Amino acid sequence: MIEVPEESHKLVRDFAGYLRLERGYSENTIEAYMTDIAKWIKFCSNQNLDPIPPRHEYMSRFLKAMASEGKSKASLQRYAAAIRSWNRYLTIEGWVDGEQWLPSLPSKEQKLPRILSEGEIERLISSCRDGSVLGGRDEALFELAYGCGLRASEVCSLALEDIDWRAGTLRVIGKGDKERVVPLLGSVKEKLRHYVDAIRPLLNRREERWLFLTRTGRKLHREDLWRIIRRRGKAAGIPSVRLHPHVLRHSLATHMLRRGLDLRTLQELLGHASISTTERYTHLDLELRDIYDKCHPRA
Fold first, then answer.
1. Are 30 and 20 in contact (CB under 8 A)?
2. Alpha carbons 254 and 263: distance in angstroms, whole number
3. Are 181 and 163 in contact (CB under 8 A)?
4. Closest CA to 76 of 85, 87, 63, 89
5. What does pLDDT average to over the chain?
6. Is 249 a residue of the active site?
7. Given 55, 84, 175, 218, which residue is catalytic?
8. Could you confirm whether 175 is annotated as catalytic?
9. Which of 151, 180, 191, 296 is labelled catalytic?
């Protein structure tokens, strides 16, 4: 974490509470905003600028500096959003007389997600079958992430109690803490069961409740998952430029659409934001399960 001047510590902590309680942001978003605001405050401190209030010209200089460091348009967009939220919070709390007008960036361009072919997915998973404990973990991780179309953060936040072996389902906490239930199909359930029974006990040195653990027995984080994907992708001969934390999720979505799954059902299965709030606790009925089973490439 970037160091923040001592006098700003409490204000930044309170801002995190505002994002969590008042705005209802996810922990991932809050963590990203905290990093962005810390970077903003540090920039102002180094430039002898007052970060409160975040003035238009200061923010423009900050964004230009970040762009010169090679930050992507998406990153600049997030910096701007974080600073505007920070400005709004300062106004509400009375630190600023009136909300400052701050520059905004054009909407970030939509890029088609990079995906792997079904053959490449098989190669990626096969690269894990090296007879090692971590290989067994990675195989189960890839099978589950692809088989259920999970986000990287969703994979890392899974706990043992999220698995319902009898029902053959998995409880997933998605963006905005929205909960959904997805089916564990035959091959995915089989690999996961083997991991939980035979592989995970060899890693679980701290009595952790989390499903996927590192070699030292701690909870697997997004950065760990990214390193695993890159390492296994290299072993499978897949160019690193085509790999990213959500590559398994995006690949599954594309493969299922090609096999005839309708978009609305896919949105429900993947827990996209367009699902209405009344569907936040999704239980897959037999008809939906039949559609899923018919269209899923690993059914």
1. yes
2. 10
3. no
4. 63
5. 80
6. yes
7. 175
8. yes
9. 151
* Rg, C-alpha atoms of the chain: 22
Per-residue exposure over 85-105, b if at least 16 CB sit within 10 Å of its own CB, e if not? bbbbbbeeeeebeeebebeee
Give dist(CA 262, CA 220) in Å, integer. 33
Residue 244: active-site member:
no
Residue whose entry in the numeric block shows the structure tokens 């803490």: 177
| C-alpha span between 137 and 199 (Å, rounded) | 7
Domains belonging to the chain, first-starting first, are 6-92 (1.10.150.130), 118-295 (1.10.443.10)
- Put simply, whether the predicted model's pTM sits higher than 0.70 gets the answer no
**Contact call for residues 86 and 130 (beta carbons, < 8 A):** no
- Which among 13, 205, 281, 294 is annotated as catalytic? 281
Q: Which of 114, 272, 280, 298 is catalytic?
A: 272
Give the residue carrying structure tokens 């997030």: 78
Q: What is the pLDDT of residues 54-106, one digit of tens each?
A: 777 888 888 888 888 888 888 888 888 888 888 888 777 777 655 554 445 44
* pLDDT, tens digit, 9 for 90 and up, residues 5-22: 455 677 788 888 888 877
Determine whether 151 is an active site residue. yes
294 in active site: no
Half-sphere exposure of 290 (CA within 13 A, CB side): 3
Pick from 91, 78, 67: nearest CA to 25? 78
Which of 249, 255, 292, 296 is catalytic? The answer is 249
SS3 for 231-272, per residue? HHHHHCCCCHHHCCCCHHHHHHHHHHHHCCCCHHHHHHHHCC
**Residue of 137, 189, 200, 246 with catalytic role:** 246
